[in-house]
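I need you to check the entry underneath: sequence plus fold tokens. Let me know what the token row says about the fold.

>
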Amino acid sequence: MFSWRKKQFKAESKRLLEMMINSIYTQREIFLRELISNASDAIDKIYYKALTDDSLTFNKEDYYVKITADKASRTLTIADTGIGMTKEDLENNLGVIAKSGSLAFKSENEAKDGHNIIGQFGVGFYSAFMVADVVTVTSRALGSDEAYKWESEGADGYTITPAEKDSVGTEIVLKIKENTEDDQYDEYLEEYRLRAIIKKYSDFIRYPIKMDVKTQRPKADAENEFEEVQEEQTINSMVPIWRKNKGELTDEDYVNFYNEKRYGFDKPLKHIHVKADGAVVYNAILFIPENTPFDYYTKEYEKGLELYSNGVLIMDKCGDLLPDYFSFVKGMVDSEDLSLNISREMLQHDRQLTLIAKNIKNKVKSALQGMMKDERENYEKFFASFGRGLKFGVYNDYGMNKEDLQDLLLFTSSKEKKLVSLDEYVSRMPEDQKYIYYASGDSIDRIEKLPQTEMVLDNGYEILYFTDDVDEFAIKMLMKYKEKEFKSVSSGDLGIDSEADKQENEAEESDNKELFEAMGSLLAGKVKSVKASKRLKSHPVCLSTEGEVSIEMEKILKAMPNGQDIQADKVLEINTNHEVFQSLKALQADQDKLKLYTNLLYNQALLIEGLPIADPVEFTNDICKIMV
């Protein structure tokens, strides 16, 4: 005799259900993804049986999932034509939470032909209670004439009773909760909302997900008039682009996918289609965008790729799949090999995830190197948008990633007045050139006017122009490229002077030691020393630096929110071949005039570097003194 008595969930199952309804899932809309995935699994089970049972014929056109919303009765129905459940199945799979029929079936039937059972945890079904007061499951198993109904109002328990059902399969009816002040449950009865959830999470379920949708069509008996009708439509795409052969896809197909997924409002510069079958199996489609998202260089920007497990969306943005310096990459990854947590919303950090992330990093790097070589115009567009992030990636994490990024960097060249790579620079260095020279400033125009560049350029050496605030920090971390060290044109020793030049310079220093020491005393606390310069040709004065902190780095650090008071060790260099120097020597005995000229030269050097003058009024008064 059949028992009608309400059965209680086991104690541990009851606690799990209460916890799951309240905390396991972060978004209520997930319930539909879970129920559709279970329905897909039920159809897959028939497919597997048909592989070994000659009496079964699997005709894919006969299998589907149907979603029906009824606002009047506040019910949402998810029906499938899958394998169905017996009374024992209902008892075992729905009466014991976290016991998964799909998982057991999967262990007995290895996946073939790309069909993989999705449900592995046995809790997804109960996500329905997040939106429903009552859940009713009516099911008829394959090969059985009997049907049964499982019904529950949640943690209080469930009943199983005989039922009528004409065909094999399962029908789940959710009695949607009433709205509250904080929650609008009506949305799960709205056609547009259901369509959106299906497209977001279940677009690539391999069987049709059908709905009766309202549409407009021309009236048969009236011209230019339309009537509203309901017709059954398939909502999901079913076959994802990443499972298609690359040979049958065009560039337009990839661009359309980029637009459909709303990865950006631009047209991607490049796509990368990955089919990996090695230590970890996954498919991926990655995009290199052209334009920078409006919030890209802010804390609000969230990196990550869409993550699918067997065609079902698990995460909107999986940040673990991309290093920070490649956070501009858009796209998706689909894998069967992921270790998911109980809610299928988060990943366990495991070997598979690490392998996929490493492979993606290498694929992106390789694609960017290919763009630089073969699609230079596109690469320079990309670099204009995202190059600053690559430079920061060199500097960040104590230079841990510099080997991955150094060949992707571009800087404006003094020789070509266009962007060049470090490899291009080094490959054309004269044999006698010891260093990779660079100059830093707010703009290329300003850098080109720096007095410090004269000597380097006169020797026929190329200079890289650094205009991004992160440039010099990145290069300091890089230290050298292909055994060539980087050298600022403002460094104390440029490595250019011949032995004769050095001897001449030492003689100049010795002859004018008293003058330079007097000027140094007048500028005490402002410069480390005053000395004769051999780098200057036409300019009377400039600032150079000693130590690791340059003048540009000092400016950047001082401009930061925390206002780091870090000073560069400045040296005031005087052009001993300039007319001004002759005036200085003539004024050496006149302490007042020497102070006047020293301050003027120092403030002039500050202005050249774009540094603020401590007392602009005093500076203008000093100028007036030499005009009268």
